[in-house]
What we know:
Elements: H1 35-38, E1 41-47, H2 50-58, E2 61-62, E3 67-69, E4 72-79, E5 82-88, H3 93-109, E6 116-125, E7 135-143, E8 165-166, H4 169-175, E9 181-188, H5 196-204, E10 210-212, H6 215-225, E11 228-237, H7 243-267
Parallel strand pairs: 1-5, 1-6, 6-11, 7-9, 9-10
Antiparallel strand pairs: 2-4, 3-4, 4-5, 6-10, 7-8, 7-11
Helix pairs in contact: 2-7, 3-6, 4-7
Amino acid sequence: MSSSPLPENPVHSNPGHSNPGHSNPGHSNPARSTTADRTRVRAVIVAAMESEFAPLLARGEVTGDAVEVGGARLQPARLAESEVLLVRSGIGLVNAALATTAALLRLSGEGLEPGLVVSVGSAGGFAGAVSVGQVAVGSEHRHHQADAVAFGYVLGQVPGMPEHFPADPSALAAVAGLDGVVVGPHASADVFVAGPLIEKVLADFPGTVAVEMEATAIAQVAHSFGIGFVSVRGISDLCGVDAAADHAATVDRVSAAAAEVVLRILSS
Length: 268
């Protein structure tokens, strides 16, 4: 437990509601740019691995020098005629949160604020909900290893945060009805889901279609900054005994498919 005590009364906030009184941690100066100026960057797009990052670069145009921050790579680019900041974060929740925060603070220091934060790459899926090669777009996101139930929170909820983090409605609208795209709940943790853990995740979070190791942390950062979020993940495996081998064999292909769906969202 951290040095700060848990809230005495857990706050089960509306997952779709941003607190208007929540200060943006990227702004110490009360002077604000105009909305038009601050949204010139369409999106911050975060991929964990080089194999998930490369399809974005291949489909875009580099517009500035890359910057390394805390192990993350931040690359200004143009995708689908939109200015974006591409981020290769590294694998896992902490790396993802660190890289996303670094990207948002860097843009804030330049007087910019993206309209959307995107998590992109690969994920494991659950048989019957998705198939390998499909793209799973998260409708809501939870930490499937978070458990503060003893303090009055629901399973999957980080203390002081919403019960789950919903996707940006306009991003979901952009992918509605697309062939090969499945929309449904995602769950994240610092664990590669396979074997008996499959049953536990499905029992704890019925209806979950995909699991990965970054998206919910990125969603939590986006929520804290008051920015919309969506996760777009190509399904590389079905979390079975061959999941690791299946992932290695398909990650390039499914990450490319996910990148194509991101282009559709940016174009909407």
